[in-house]
Amino acid sequence: MATIDGLPSLRDVINAHDLVAKRQLGQNFLLDLNLTAKIARLAGDIAGADVLEVGPGPGGLTRGLLVEGARHVVAVEKDPRCIAALNEIAAAYPGRLTVIEGDAMEVDLTGRLTAPVRIAANLPYNVGTELLIRWLTPRVWPPFWDSMTLMFQREVALRITAKPGDEHYGRLAILCQWRTDAKIVMHLPPEAFTPAPKVHSAVVHLTRLPAPRFAADERILNRIVAAGFNQRRKMLRSSLKSIAPDIEAVLESVGIAPTARAEEISLERFCALARAVAERGA
Ligand code: SAM
């Protein structure tokens, strides 16, 4: 059957290069090129952008991004077995795909990407959340990327987009929503992948904000949120004791009941609390 780009089907690529999936590399491949092209479209305007892809594997999403007109894709893959297959795609799209063999946690991308940059990836589950946190916490804001369109286990996607009162609301929701607009844009069942993982997946699209949504010192906000959610069943007057000696008064000064729990508190209130703690010289 003809493929969307005239290149061999992903099954043929996997057979030709003997790319038996390795669980330790989080390899669950998307083999439907119509689906990967759809995910590429969810990444927004890629025609005028460089796209960073982590974990291209046999190249399903890479091909989707190229078919959808990405200006330039920089794809970082840790598995050396995939590189020859990816280089075949690069040959079909001269000058538009750079394949880098390496660990995305260590590779230096300086000078490889030209703004505007969008990140799109079906992330390896073992490093996905850590990469997300790194991309969200650069030394200076705004970061090098404009948007991220990322596949996660559904549970992680729910943690990213959760609101106060949701069971998944916690540190990741605060971190993501403080600096981006984050929404789930696609749900995928296990059968969409080969091999099928045990869990459902979802694609999250995060668009960076020009500045954090509410003013707050990042370090203080992190301390408060970490302390609050580490003991999420405890009342804030108890879980935040280490933050300020007069924590009850500080909570009340920003309209938070000292008996409230972290899971009820909005991002805006957490930021107000961080400012109040900063004013008291914490
Ligand atoms: N993008 C492909 C797709 O959608 O079919 C493959 C996705 S698969 C879930 C994750 C990919 O990330 C695998 O190809 C795996 O080898 C790669 N990978 C795992 N850890 C990595 C790391 N630290 N740096 C770069 N790639 C990694």
Notable characteristics:
282 residues; alpha/beta; Rossmann fold; Helicase, Ruva Protein, domain 3; 2 domains; seven-stranded mixed beta sheet; two-stranded antiparallel sheet; 11 helices; 9 strands; binds S-adenosylmethionine
Shape by Cα distribution? elongated
Structural class: alpha/beta
Any idea what the CATH architecture of the largest domain is?
3-Layer(aba) Sandwich
Task: Classify the beta-strand content into a percent band.
Answer: 15-25%
Q: Would you tell me which CATH topology of the largest domain applies?
A: Rossmann fold
Q: What is the count of β-strands?
A: 9
Describe the structure.
With 282 residues, the chain is α/β, with parallel strands linked by helices. It has two domains: 10-208, Rossmann fold, CATH 3.40.50.150; 218-279, rRNA adenine dimethylase, C-terminal domain (Helicase, Ruva Protein, domain 3). 35% of the residues lie in helices and 18% in strands. It has eleven helices and nine strands. It has helices at residues 10-16, 33-42, 60-67, 83-92, 128-136, 154-161, 171-179, 218-230, 236-239, 247-253, 267-279; strands at residues 29-30, 50-54, 72-77, 97-101, 117-122, 147-153, 180-188, 193-194, 201-208. The strands form two sheets. It has a seven-stranded mixed sheet. Strands 1-8 form a two-stranded antiparallel sheet. α4 links the parallel β3 and β4. α2 (33-42) crosses α3 and α8 crosses α11 (267-279). It is elongated and about 65 Å long. It starts with 9 loop residues before the first helix and ends with a helix. The mean pLDDT is 96. Bound molecules: S-adenosylmethionine (SAM). The site of S-adenosylmethionine has 23 residues, from β1, α3 and β3.
